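Morning!

As promised:
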Amino acid sequence: MTASVELRGVSMDFDKYRAVDDVSVKINPGEFFSFLGPSGCGKTTILRMVSGFIEPTKGQVLIGDQDMRGIGPNKRPTAMIFQNLALFPLMSVWENIAFGLEMRGVDKAARRAKAEELLTLVELPGVGDRYASQLSGGQRQRVAIARALAVEPQVMLLDEPLSALDLKLRQHMRSELRAIQKRTNVTFIYITHDQGEALAMSDRVAVMSRGKIQQVDVPQKIYNNPSNGFVASFVGENNKFTGTLGAISKGQGKFKTDAGEFAVTLGEGVTKDSKYRLYIRPEHVGFVAKPKAGGNAVPVTVEDVSFEGNFATVNLRDKTGRRLSAEVRNDPLNPPPAVGSKTNITFDQDKALVLLDSEASAYAEKD
Amino acid sequence: MSELIRRFGTLLTTVAILLTAFWLLFLVIFPYLGLFEQSFRPYLPVDEIGGPNDFYSVNNYLSMFHNPTEINLLGLTFSVPIHLWVFFITILYSSITALAALLLCYPLAYYMAKVIPPKSLPTFLLLLVIPMWVSELLRAFAWFIILAFNGPLTIVLQDLHIITDPVRWVNGLGGYSGVVIGLVYAYILFMLFPVYNSMSSLDTNQLEAAEDLGARWWQTHWRVVVPHCKPGIASGSVTVFMLAAGSILVPTLVGSTRSRWFTEIIQQWMFESQDWNTGAAYAFVLLIVCTIFVTLMMRFFKVGLADIAK
């Protein structure tokens, strides 16, 4: 069983502070959906409203087209995985997993059988009689997933459950979570501030800032076609230029900066009168010794090269002192330019995006 | 030890240890040993002490089993030695006191630990502690007045039309309601703080996790909160039970005509009969049996001594 989740004009106020501001989004049944944003952006509040721990000040939360107002967390078809997992330390692993069934009055033998079945599903057979404290971080994670799955939820809510794990394990658990979601076909709502997690696991991502959704889209679109400066800055790195738009036609135009004039592509809602900036991803930046006439190019000095293995980050400075960076794939035959050398960077028009800048994007840069 | 010497120097460490040893030996252990020795000797006129009649026996302890009296309980009549009966009643009502204190403190501790905002907690704690600044005697006496026949409680309830005829409040529970009320009031904080401490160390996410998995509020309490708080509950119960069983003031002041407390009998032996020997014997019976009782209860509820010390 799986269900859709819909937020209709949902707002949440804590005293005078508006944590969630008029959010509307529809999450499809069986979808892996992430809310991505910095801490304090309201993503956890959304999760708690779906789970029923808090009721929205305004608007509706619907699960499977049913309005959830007035229905407590113990009556909703959701199960939550907490950031600290919140396993019960005084119960054995199988009792933890079977807790939801125990609350529903299922008899002990059936509970035990279901717990073993779920332990097999999360690839952790035979640990039923141990206690959570005797398990490793990754194993505890799996127990928490099994415990949530035991109540056969239609919607699974995950509140940054991987944040306590080390990097290797986190990456492993990503694909694991994704696999479990596909196997069970339960709707997953995942909360994270880690863009890598959100992009790697999700069917769709909602990027949030200051209680508002900035963009809802598939991961590729979020990264390649950010709707505004905040999304571009929060998800991935950028080279940024301030400047003014010249001639505009059909979503393309000229952008005049102190480093030169560039041919650019306009983002959503950008007009000459709006507040905007130019964003270029480091991996879309290339090097040329002699720039083509009319192409986008900036003369730069190489300050530093940090070699990461599969790619290298090249830190640069242009003549105005602006810091820029380029990411080049590792290629022994074509190494990155030497430190101290003078060269030119270049980028394509369709990769040079002029995006709306809001207050929110300044906020993202501070993080 | 070497840590202490390093931090405070040899002189200060020696002084501290000697003072502690003095306190333990001269104020606790020796007096107890003295009473313990006396409890095996007969009560004699001064000129016979050390004489041929002054020999060790358990006669003082056996006097618990003298003076059988008729007791009516649940329609049955027993013949029980009166002091033994009072002893049993003391244990029983001390247990009831501990239970009543727990029933009052559990919701209060939960409210303090998990419901009220942390910034109003100090005010709340202060309100709880202020009554304890008044002497125990005055507090017990206050209850004596409140519960009196035609006293303030009766008048208030009559004015609210909850009762019509005056009630003898101290006569409930077989004549022990006044004692239980007074004891609960006197020792309630000894229950509240251990329970509150264990409650506040419970991760709130656990409560939410239980609720999220479908637990109703009482299921959450029974399966998550109570097991977590067991050490605190045990610690509070032991303390309140021991204090109640050893209390003399409250049973004397707020008792009814029918209530007798074992400490009152000890007091009678010691100060009315001047028989310190039998009084000491009774005091040791109270100490030892209460300790055994508490140990058995802890065994029954599967609580270790180390849990309580936490």
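The two ends of chain B are 22 Å apart (CA to CA).

Hope this helps with the figure draft.
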